[in-house]
## 1
Amino acid sequence: MTSQAGRHFLQIPGPTNVPDQVLRAISAPTIDHRGPEFAALTTELLASLKPVFGTSGPVVVFPGSGTGAWEAALVNTLSTGDRVLHVETGHFATLWQQMAAGLGLYVDFLPGDWCHGASPEAIAERLAADSARTIKAVCVVHNETSTGVTSRVPEIRQAMDATGHPALLLVDTISSLGSIDYRHDEWGVDVTVAGSQKGLMLPPGLGFNAVSEKALAASRTARLRKSYWDWQPIIEANRRGFFPYTPATNLLYGLAEALRMLHDEGLPEVFARHDRHAAATRTAVRGWGLEVLCADDREHSSSLTAVLMPEGQDADKVREIILERFDMSLGAGLGKLAGRIFRIGHLGHLNDLTLAGTLAGVQMGLQLAGVRIDPGGLTAALDVLRAE
Ligand code: PLP
């Protein structure tokens, strides 16, 4: 490591850089989680969390990772032997359907090429063919963190509605919530799954489920075994500002501060900032003469960009050089994309100059790795940042 001074650039697509204000909030003394001060904190927190999900319904907060929140979404709404439709958008969609199968659900896994989002037409086709209504839920990853592709959830909902099929819609927003426009109620999502460590600018450790009326009704008859993840006792205790177990008190302090920051900036402004940074990143990548993995212009992720390496070049070598020389972490290719892509995270607590530094580091790393690129890529990205 030649450059230890200054701040590490954590430009993976989550966990993201935690703002100093949030870190300071987390460091406050832990309080009695059964006392009145805590009840006031929870009540305010849950209220300011709802607009981030775009819901007026309950949002359940778990101490746990995003994977736990996936499990909570499934075990609260489904019963052993139910059929679920998952869509192969990438590595995380693959893991979620593996979990569903492991829990005793029958999984239909719609194949995908890891360059496109979930196809509304293909989902509708499967539902239309299911005349016995055996499919109980459609599970979609909104922003596939392994590929940098964002699925068109409103179109998926419309396509589902057009078939008249009653399946629930479960959506993973782990790397989109708080970064990319998302509307649980308006888009007719039944369970939205999220985590703390990406757009919400917190350390890892909290998982979330936003729950529709229909999902809540399904939870009353769902028979998959659950205990810790059971929504009912949590929603019940939350009404009085409490949790049925010891909550992650200090992460909740951090969440309160992060929500204040998001609301102060304004959610539309937060989404516009992410869109702009993503556009500047794509400009750099294309300016270098490299390819963005996402193959559909309607589906570019605003929270990360996956960069495809030219044939014969190792993406992990580039990441290794960038870490050693410039103290910057980039996301690795996951699953079948290992070594073929690297991922630039541009979500969370990020401004123009942090992005400019990130892209400068990537450009220099590519050059040091011997990848033939046009160095005009960085200048083109700076032009985008300067222009707006
Ligand atoms: N889903 C998506 C889209 C993710 O990006 C991740 C993690 O990066 C997960 C699920 C799993 O979340 P966690 O690692 O917090 O368990």
## 2
Amino acid sequence: MKASAGYQIVTLNEFIINRQEEHPEARGDLSRLLHHIGVAAKIVNKKINKAGLVDILGEAGEVNVQGEDVKKLDVFANDHFIAAIQASGEVCAIASEENQEIVTFDDGLSRDGHYVFCMDPLDGSSNIEVNVSVGTIFSIYRRTSPEGERAQVSDFLQTGDHQVAAGYVIYGSSTMMVYTTGNGVDGFTLDPGIGEFCLSHPGIRTPDEGRIYSINEGNYVHFPMGVKQYIKYCQEIDPDTHRPYTSRYIGSLVSDFHRNLLMGGIFIYPQTQSAPKGKLRLIYECNPVAFIAEQAGGAATNGSTRMLEVIPDDLHQRVPLYVGSRKMVDKVKAFLHQYP
Ligand code: AHG
Ligand code: MN
Ligand code: MN
């Protein structure tokens, strides 16, 4: 039956099923997993919306594996995503920012799961108390250990170009889920009226050339010379290249990345004197956004190597991140090369 005019909503679940039908060989396992991610996102969204009302702000009295304070909402998001992913039965283990070790699932169904799941359950959590957008970042790999056995850390130490899917949820003025399975990038906005993620941004493409640069300039004195020179370049007057550019920095990777993805721009978190390897984590922050950026026509690098080719040696490894519009990433790379 043809839908009547004005009723063209495609929900996340419909979209997932439609995509699966285009691949008759697909077994539906990834579809099930994506569905469960959507469910967890809705639960976490509900909690975040109420954050100012109930006692879920503040510290949970622990520090996470990065030595940072764990907010109660970090714990909530972590627990709910782990539960939802386990319920999918498709994942044998999870690596999370909030867990030092991998979380392995030992029930029969999960041990047979084809996938491992990486996540930053709540990104930008220091922003939650001032009502600024936060997010969840996720990434999915096919396991490398034999099915039926307990998952290993080595299942997670794959280069980013092995990702089967990656995405994020942004809990903002509206809540969105954006993801890729390596076939372009699609965005879904949560309609609170019906409680469904609805396709709102099909086939996202990021502009080749943007006008926004996003970096914590408070750390300027600690930046490598190439980054300092690039910032100067962004601030110079040149009508041909529409400079000076605009500076925007929220302090939530998901939010900064999302804005730049849609509008064109570059996000930089370089190495600094106090963080010689950078701050952001390769496996559950940098690789997922790098995969999405590339799938939208953008680029991502650690300054010298394409992000998706960086070989991980640790679950919580940090790496410098330069991600966004292709020409802007090329430009900063040229500065880094010129001023090593
Ligand atoms: P998280 O809340 O998961 O620890 O991540 C915070 C990250 C990231 O979201 C953001 O881009 C960056 O930290 C901001 O760091 P600075 O405050 O050092 O700029
Ligand atoms: Mn984060
Ligand atoms: Mn986090």
## 3
Amino acid sequence: MTEVLVTGGCGFIGTNLLRYILENRPDWEVVNLDQLTYAGNLENTDDLAKRYPARYSFVRGDITDAPFIDELIGRRRFDLVMNLAAESHVDRSIHGAGVFIRTNVQGVQVLLDAVLKHGVKRFLQVSTDEVYGSLGASGSFHEGLPLAPNSPYSASKAAADLLVRAYIHTHGLDAVITRCSNNYGPYQFPEKLIPLMVLNAIKGKELPVYGNGRNVRDWIYVEDHCRGIVTVAEKGVSGEAYNLGGGAEKENIEIVRTICRHLNRPETLIRFVKDRPGHDFRYAMDHSKITRDLGWSPRVDFDEGLAETIVWYLANETWWERILSGDYRNYYERMYADR
Ligand code: NAD
Ligand code: TYD
């Protein structure tokens, strides 16, 4: 058995990663550590606890809580720690950067210290294309570029990448970094572009597009990202960062119009609103390194992936209604009240 700690497993990508691992790596035993912030939904992983009782368990905890992390990692003797726990929303980081520095930077330092002290074989940090900054109309990000983050969120992620680099260099830690572009798919919290627009369109509400809607993101289906994370964990070279991207560059307005078409809603719902301060213009990933060295490339076509994602949101109204009403936040208290 390979003993794995996944942090942030009740968030969007973590939930999909846990599913990917449990279905595709039968000899991996996984502990999901999550603080259950507003973005963490324990209901996402409810079925996993039932389907894989011997290979999956959940622990509630904060990655910045050093004594707790030290005790957990010391006791469980993990082979691999994959860090997905983070504050992940750019707009929130503009309104308050403190918790981003705490979780995304200090939390990584706490994990690195425990991983080092207890001899965990490998640490994988899930990072983002946003650490490279913003592109103009042409070009793409490659791993050799200097980090040039523009938002408090991306600055905190870049700081974490640099800490990982420093622990590798200074302490000889075995660690790898994945940097991925914008994900979409099931279980994404409805504050991000695609789920927010899908739910607003379903409800016939306005669709708030920042600025002129011409900003570009490089979209990847979440399962492709998860397969990439596992590929890097298994085959990546320590000390290296690997870019992952979907090869699907889209203007925001194009995505919103496509969502309107799928849901048979008029484009008159679209409202151009005040732009995000410091809004990065364009992201595009050059993922040739991981394709060449580790054999990974994205598989899901954007149009098909988006159509499937919209179908998922239509079929899972209870899931998102409980988020919109706030009921999902009481789930942990109910589940664990008598334990
Ligand atoms: P998310 O916001 O959906 O989930 C984050 C999870 O981390 C939640 O379950 C939350 O409860 C947990 N968490 C937050 N603070 C914690 C703490 N202090 N201790 C323990 N758990 C804590 O985020 P996501 O979209 O799933 O992103 C996961 C990771 O992938 C993040 O590191 C993010 O930076 C990175 N990433 C995301 C994208 C994207 O498009 N969503 C793209 C590239 C990289
Ligand atoms: P988001 O999903 O927040 O991801 P990120 O900022 O990390 O790329 O936003 C994706 C793009 O969509 C970004 O250019 C901002 C834009 N956007 C809107 O136009 N309206 C919205 O309501 C949101 C949430 C995002």
